[in-house]
Design a protein that fits this description.
single chain; 9 helices; six-stranded parallel sheet; 250 residues; two-stranded antiparallel sheet; alpha/beta; 38% helix
């Protein structure tokens, strides 16, 4: 095994800060040798901090960069294309959650990973949150008895927003505000509630064998914070049924 792992940051937005802080604090064998972002200033800022080389496209980084693995931190609609490109280039892949926006896309990513034999890992951090770790310990100890039913929620306040810029195209505005548009982010279940679903599967020790949904749909009206109302959302519910196993990866 190599003494150091050379890593490329692909996507140098807000989440990259958390990843780099984690590397600096807990993973001394990792060296960030390349930083990739369509915003050249962001890529260069991380390159300057890490001593890596900045690129403005993944294609250029894969052609000219020196790294063994990639840390993909991109809007969700770009996950499949970027992950498959990296697998085909023989790179190990750490992919920020969620894997992608639909099951067919996830299947294609998994198939690409299996075909190359490289390491593939999803970056899902909820199992490491201190309150989740403590809850798992209490449940595993049997202190509260057998778990019959789980119910998980994602509750939050407002989300970040980037205002419209002069002469900015509608496409550029939506991509820059990807969290506000379902075609880019996959909506709230895909973007945030995936944390809770992952923890529920971990605590239960199994993946769902049945899923039932009811309710309606929501639409963010235009994406602007000043007009970010939700249109006609009836009460909704999604229920997963798991096999009964102990805590641990299924």
């Amino acid at each position: 095994m190599a003494e150091r792992l050379k890593l490329a940051f692909v996507g140098c937005g807000a989440i990259a800060r958390y990843h780099l802080d984690g590397i600096n604090e807990h993973a001394p064998r990792i060296q960030v040798t390349a930083t990739v972002d369509v915003d050249a200033e962001k890529a260069q800022a991380y390159a300057t901090e890490t001593g890596g080389t900045a690129f403005t496209s993944l294609e250029e980084a894969l052609e000219k960069g020196d790294f063994d693995a990639v840390d993909l931190m991109l809007p969700h609609d770009l996950h499949e294309q970027a992950a498959i490109q990296c697998f085909e280039a023989g790179k190990h892949v750490l992919l920020e959650k969620p894997m992608s926006l639909d099951l067919d896309s996830c299947d294609r990513i998994l198939a690409a990973a299996r075909s190359t034999g490289t390491v593939f890992m999803m970056a899902e951090n909820a199992q490491y949150w201190p309150e989740i770790v403590k809850a798992a310990e209490v449940i595993e100890s049997g202190a509260i008895g057998d778990i019959i039913t789980q119910r998980v929620y994602w509750n939050g306040g407002g989300i970040w927003y980037r205002g419209r810029q002069a002469e900015q195209s509608e496409m550029a505005f939506q991509v820059n505000n990807w969290y506000h548009f379902n075609w880019v982010c996959g909506d709230q279940i895909c973007e945030q509630h995936i944390h809770n679903i992952d923890v529920a599967c971990w605590i239960k020790g199994a993946y769902p064998v049945e899923c039932n949904g009811m309710g309606g749909w929501g639409q963010r009206m235009g994406g602007d914070r000043s007009n970010d109302s939700i249109k006609a959302v009836p009460g909704s519910q999604c229920r997963h049924t798991n096999e009964n196993k102990g805590i641990g990866r299924p």
